[in-house]
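ESCALATION

Customer reports they have been waiting on this structure for their group meeting. Please prioritize. Original submission:
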Amino acid sequence: IRCWSNIPFITVPLSRAHGKSFAHRSELKHAKRIVVKLGSAVVTRGDECGLALGRLASIVEQVSMLQNQGREMMIVTSGAVAFGKQRLRHEILLSQSVRQALHSGQSQLKDMAIPVLEARACAAAGQSGLMALYEAMFTQYSICAAQILVTNLDFHDEQKRRNLNGTLHELLRMNIVPIINTNDAVVPPPEPNSDLQGVNVISVKDNDSLAARLAVEMKTDLLIVLSDVEGLFDSPPGSDDAKLIDIFYPGDQQSVTFGTKSRVGMGGMEAKVKAALWALQGGTSVVIANGTHPKISGHVITDIVEGKKVGTFFSEVKPAGPTVEQQAEMARAGGRTLAALQPEQRAEIIYRLADLLTDQREEILLANKKDLEEAENKGRLALPLLKRLSLSTSKLNSLAIGLRQIAASSQDSVGRVIRRTRIAKDLDLEQVTVPIGVLLVIFESRPDCLPQVSALAIASGNGLLLKGGKEAAHSNQILHHLTQEALSVHGVRDAVQLVNTREEVEDLCRLDKLIDLIIPRGSSQLVRNIQKAAKGIPVMGHSEGICHVYVDTDASVEKVTRIIRDSKCEYPAACNALETLLIHRDLLRTPLFDQIIDMLRVEQVKIHAGPKFASYLTFSPSEVKSLRTEYGDLECCIEVVDSVKEAVEHIHKYGSSHTDVIITENEKTAEFFLQHVDSACVFWNASTRFSDGYRFGLGAEVGISTSRIHARGPVGIEGLLTTKWLLRGDNHVVSDFSDHGSMKYLHESLPLPQRNAS
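Update from on-call: job pushed to the front of the queue and completed.
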């Protein structure tokens, strides 16, 4: 016997043998048999008289979709009383109006009082109509539904239990959705907490307990309980500091304070939790979620089955480490402590991390070797991504040099005064730099990103959450361990957190109260997905790196092939690699053009012809499918333009505002290009590959931003800072500055304090 609260759960005949519930949300997609419990607040309208038809139609659509995927769906529904109440009120009003008209002979009717309607009578009047409505809705999806009315006695009588069990299994076998409800027309009034008085099985006294009992009886994989609140909170919803509990574990109920029950229905949240824990003990996973919110009710059931972070998930498996919410809170607290350190203390941490990268290189490379071997064995990474995943001694040495650059340049980053204004006598205003807060950096196949981003976060005093790809798990683990070792020098170990839970990226992007900025580093698809998923959190980055090189008529023969080769071939998987080569029309069929083509062939670069370029050739390479393509490999597009102005127009139309280059010896043409191309980085006679934080002297970068606010281009320490205003006065009030006041505004600019010479 296992006990929850003071209700023992015992094995009874025909109930499910003790199975294992799902340990993680991500496993819910494997649920085959699912019970959806619809609370009264979900099914009924706000006036508690009649059904919420739009909401009900959406729920039926989701259940039908899952049923048609081959799952076995069952619904435990409320609503018969509300539907019957609507019908009976209508009948009473109609009856009263006829009698009154007959007795008075007047057409104008007086106010008519409606008697209190008995719930069992309402249920009797509403059950047939409710079922007819479900049948009509499910018919739209070619699904048959069947009604089953039960009472508590049906579970205590052995023969009735067998019959019920057999009926449900037969309906599921025939692909019919059973719709189950307590037979409220005959059920006796509930006895509150009757199952707490030594009864060894849960009583069916409301639809919560019915759903739990049914889920265990039918060996259900998942029970979804929909109510009018988002899930289970650590204190009554709406109270100060109430937080939604993402995962609830048996034994945690002591830390929860329950509020009042919902506006309708028999059970409150306490009843739902008790029923959920009882079902969990029987091997059924449970999620309690909001089925009434207009923004999520249209996909709440399918989202839960897909494993998304919706509502409260009940699990018997408690993770060893903290939740991601706890990690974010730890990062914020650690970041604030980090920001309060002296600049030289933050620099000391970064210098220590740089030393650890070289001192512990053997352990790092051994962990990286495991990642590479696993990736190669599984064959899940393309060659360019394998190159990104790979670490080497030279890479670690370069990382260490970059980190030391960050440490040296971070001495005067946080708390730097960038503006001073004397507002009035003895009233001085300062604008100073401060950290943004908590950063979430999501990166793929780039373990070298972890120490780079960590160093920048440390230098700027930001808390940091890191989410790396599973393909670099071993490398990320050792690098994060070394980062925390360096942070421990000044007791701020928690400022940088590595997310190791099964959190999906989409779920992380919803933590808008815990995360202040998201920085994705990876494929264009990853960046687009994050930009789409982020709700209320700004995203800094670029979705694509479609970089152009324009070869002008006045280009130097010596410079052209060197710059193009470096831009395309040095690291083709990088976001700052050349993707489209624009060539002035006058250079076609010239020795310079032939040299470019020969060099690309030698380097085994596959060429795609743009529409205009293809029109000049008898036998052209394969014509490009889109001029807006990031290849990320030894491939590029060649297109022809008539002038520098047309090159600029092409870049604006098809580029991604990342990095664009002109090769020319004509200074006037070059300046036109530099001034008119609206990209984050615009170069003259230099490779696109210079678009990089390390090469810019920033030490490293958290990414390259193509947005037009805050930071743009390679983002270093400066891009991870914001500002706040400090006003120092002496008994100043605004009324003193009115027309008849004693003070006047000065608004004088004051000199800035001298910056640290280092």
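Sent to customer with the following note: Confidence is low (pLDDT under 50) at residues 1-18, 106-110, 190-205, 262-267.
Escalation resolved.
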